[in-house]
Amino acid sequence: MKAELTLSPDPIDEAALAKARSITDGMGAVVTFAGVVRGREGEVAITGIDYESFDDMARRQFELIFAEIEQRWPIESVRLAHRTGIVKVNEPSLWVEVVAAHRAEAFYACQFLIDQMKQRVPIWKKPIVT
Amino acid sequence: MKLTVRFWSYFADVAGCRDAAFEVEEGTTLGELHDQVCEQSPKLADARNSTLKAVGVDYKDDNFVLSDGDEISFFPPVQGG
To answer: Residue B24 domain-assigned?
Structure first.
């Protein structure tokens, strides 16, 4: 399974990521997910979120999650981009792509990846209040 | 032995620093170090049960025996996405 991880303060360019997609002819499913910063955190209006990452450990934990995905499902590739630093409302902070032969494993793997990230990957957010 | 303790997210504000040097006895476990950290920063003791701990880039439990030069991180539950 190919795995590509980007942790960066640079904006996530979804069009460029889609254009860079590489799949073999046996693949019939491409699942993508974008997590976007909402304009409210609970009852409070915010202008963005400041993401702090323990980069080295985040990379390690993502590697472990990718390895688990490879063991569980026949996935051809996973790409994940997570912003660090300030991300404004309506901008994506997270982008995930899973490529597989069939949709079931692609959806399962995508959900698993995000669920595991939210439990294990050391990234924290600080809302920026107006 | 000498250890480096790193605090992440709001734990850095609570501890008053991002990094701190600790000197402990040989055989000290991660749980015992956590006790010492909580003694120095009582507000961190309030979050003790939800605190996540890592040595280097891997999660470890309280029974993990530390080594000289280890870099230990304490942080609150993660919030990626």
So the answer is: yes
The string of pLDDT tens digits covering residues A39-96 is: 999 999 999 999 999 999 999 999 999 999 999 999 999 999 999 999 999 999 999 9
On chain A, the residues whose CB falls within 8 A of the CB of B8 are: 52, 54, 122, 124
Residue identified by tokens 């569980």 is A72
Closest partner residue to B80 among A60, A123, A126, by Cβ?
A123
Tell me whether residues B8 and A121 touch, CB distance under 8 A: no
CATH classification at residue B32: 3.10.20.30
Please count the structural domains in chain B: 1
pTM of the full predicted structure?
A: 0.96
Chain A residues whose CB is inside 8 A of the B10 CB are 124, 126
Tell whether B45 is covered by a domain: yes
Boundaries of domain holding B23: 2-75
Whether B80 is covered by a domain: the verdict is no
**Cα A7 to Cα A16: distance, rounded to the nearest angstrom:** 16
How many angstroms separate the CA of residue B43 from the nearest CA in chain A? 19
